[in-house]
Amino acid sequence: MRVLLIGDSCTDVYVYGDVKRLNPEAPVPILEPKRENTTKGMAWNVFSNLKAFGLSVFMLTNEEKIIKTRYIDEKSNQQILRVDNEPEIKPLPYDPPFITDRSAYHKPPHKIPPEEWYDIMIISDYNKGYITQEKLFELVDWFEGPIIIDSKKTNLPDKCYIKVNDLEYDKLETKNDNVIITRGAKGTEYQGKLYPAEKVNVFDVVGAGDTFLAALTYGYLSHHSIEKAIPIANRAAAIAVSHTGTYVLTDEDINEILF
Predict the structure, then answer these.
(1) Which end of the chain is more exposed for a tag (fewer CB within 10 A), N or C?
(2) Residues 208, 176, 178: CA angle, nearest 5 degrees
(3) How far is CA 161 from CA 122, 127, 151, 169, 208, in A?
(4) Model-wide pTM > 0.85
(5) What is d(CA 178, CA 161) in angstroms, rounded to the nearest whole number?
(6) 19 forms bridges with which residues in the sheet?
(7) Whole-Å CA distances, 26 to 29, 78, 235
(8) Coil vs helix vs strand at 79
(9) Which residues contact 234 (CB under 8 A, 6 or more apart)?
């Protein structure tokens, strides 16, 4: 099964340390750094989790490096500060219909194979500038197969599945029956039905939406049904939030989700 993934990506940096005292200059904690961990986030996290499910993925993303640095008290696992370094992002340059050079498959994203090469298109839009409002609608009009969009934008196409959280749902300009609403610990709502979330100890929600999106895609491709895909996505998200940092599902996780 082949996936076309388009979206904003970043580098996630986690600085873990000890907080033992407050800053005498201001009422803020002082972090003594102990270790640092770097992972790929946003659309890259979707990509990694799609690959974990065994899917073949062609990805288009920004070349500029967005860096999100989180400073975390290791004892309490509390994030005390996040610093975002966001350069100006060049928009996706391609004009559908894209070129049809088949040699482009699995090569760096200066070319893109035609839409008939893919079973589904996923748009992971953090609204950082890579996918403009106009380009979003062009992509949806261009692609002939099923589409799932996870976007921070408020004006979204209605010819596809839309995955949003409850806060994003409230801001949508147009709401239709294809909207999938993640509601945290309550679960996921679709067409008026609530699919309960797995009960787990939540350590970190960073990247859980990306994991949900990847598992939702796998479930839809496997069962050709969003209703059957949502429980799979709920289980995957539950595993993600039970770990710290940006988490990529393991083979053991996949077995737990599917069997």
Answers:
(1) C
(2) 50
(3) 10, 18, 11, 13, 18
(4) yes
(5) 5
(6) 31
(7) 9, 19, 42
(8) strand
(9) 187, 188, 195, 196, 197, 198, 212
